[in-house]
Amino acid sequence: MDMTYTVGLSVVALALVIGFTAIVRERDDLHRILLTDLAEVVSLVLIALVATDLAEALILPGLVVGISELMAVSEVYIAKEGLQAPPAEPAFHIEVMDSAPGILALILVAYGIVLSGFTGGAVAAVGAVFYFMCRGHAEQFELIETVSGYAWAIWIGSFFIFMFLPQYWFFAVMMAGGAILLKVMAKMSLVGTMRGGSDV
Amino acid sequence: MFNLPTANIGGQELFVLEFGDIVNYFSPYTAALFIFALIFTILAIVSRPERQVDIAFGGDAYYAKEVDPGLLRFQRFMAIACGLATLGAMVSGDIFNFTLFASLVGITNIGIVAAYRNRHVLNAAFQYGIVAMLATVPLFGGAAIILASTGTLSMWELFTDAVAVPVIAKAFLVIGVMGEGMAPFYVAKAEITRAQGAPFILMVHVSSLLLFLRVIEIVISM
Q1: B148 contacts on A by Cβ (under 8 Å)
Q2: Would the CB atoms of B110 and A47 count as touching at under 8 Å?
Q3: pTM for the full model?
Q4: Which of A12, A113, A136, B29 gets the highest tally of CB atoms within 10 A of its CB?
């Protein structure tokens, strides 16, 4: 094996020992959640040490699994401690926040669709984030979830085309590009709703 | 085209499902596990959960616990998802897919028990969640070390004699699956079984046992 890999592995082992010792010693539940997240990052480092294209492809599912477990455990913690978010008033409210969001969001989303793919998703998401931050987001939340679900289905569908009908790859690329635009947009729009609220 | 390199553990392969370079397979061993998981998934779909009854000690009185229908729906969904993840892990022919399915089982197990508003159950679910999160470190670490040392994650390659998998990677894989499925930690699960809804809670146990059987097959074959 490569020398660099061995050195990296020993550093990771050291980090793991430190992290796990901290988790064993820590008594506060909230701090333990944070420390486990730290350990998860170390596992991503373990994958990243392989340093090939395949490792790059494996980090993403690893990250998703880590985040979803973190979210699940955090939800359990909130339920366990009986925590409730206080009813939040908007931090500030000015005239332009009533008039601008519609137009700006429309422009950004339209431009994002033209760009398509990851970049387009990010641009369109900025529009959606802006919209939700200025207006309420109580009702639109379900819409985002629905759109995200359809986008995922389209994405998977295009993967099946790649696998079983490779001659139609261009069509599949277009489908995947459009779907990932929607996915990225939906995920980043959630940032706009992160001020708390009834159904967040 | 495909021939399982070690036929003495899982038996000859019966059926091979090929997705590009990810090749799932059924051998008599994995097919048996698959059918077992399938039966319990179907049970989770069709069963009507029972009510839990608490007997008041020293008398005739008992409390019948009410189960919220919304909670049951969520729990049934999680149990079915757990069953599907177990099905995937049973037939996976790829180490990383196996680890992903294993961690999915861990997440859905947290989901099955976490819906209750009982403090003891939530406490147990929280501790269990911490263990499941920590277990992803050895789980993915094991897969990463296998990839780094052999250059492949396909079990079809790893099961051959030519490829030597380091012992540490095998150990990591087993420890990871133990943490995700909590197979040997029944003491920690004792509180979890106070949650209502027997068939769904059963899924927690079934999935962890099946996962453990599968990882043993993988580790011995490698």
Answers
A1: 1, 5, 49-50
A2: no
A3: 0.75
A4: A12
- Whether residue B216 contacts residue B46, with contact meaning beta carbons closer than 8 Å, is answered with no
For residues A93 and A86, what is the distance between their CA atoms, to the nearest angstrom?
19
Q: Which two tokens stand for residue A40?
A: 């998860």
- Asked whether residue A153 carries a pLDDT value surpassing 50, the answer given is yes
Q: How far is B8 from chain A (nearest CA, A)?
A: 31
Q: Tell me whether residues A66 and B122 touch, CB distance under 8 A.
A: no
Q: Which structure tokens are listed for A131?
A: 């919209």
Q: What ipTM score was computed for the predicted complex, to two decimals?
A: 0.76
Question: B22 - beta bridge partners?
Answer: B19
Tokens coding A111: 């431009």
Own/partner pairs, B39-47, CB within 8 angstroms, 24+ separation: B40/B83, B40/B202, B40/B203, B40/B206, B41/B80, B41/B83, B41/B84, B41/B86, B41/B87, B41/B203, B43/B199, B43/B202, B44/B76, B44/B79, B44/B80, B44/B82, B44/B83, B44/B199, B44/B200, B44/B203, B45/B76, B45/B80, B47/B199
pLDDT tens, B41-74? 888 888 776 666 777 777 788 877 776 777 778 8
Residue pair A148/A179 in contact (Cβ under 8 Å)? The answer is no
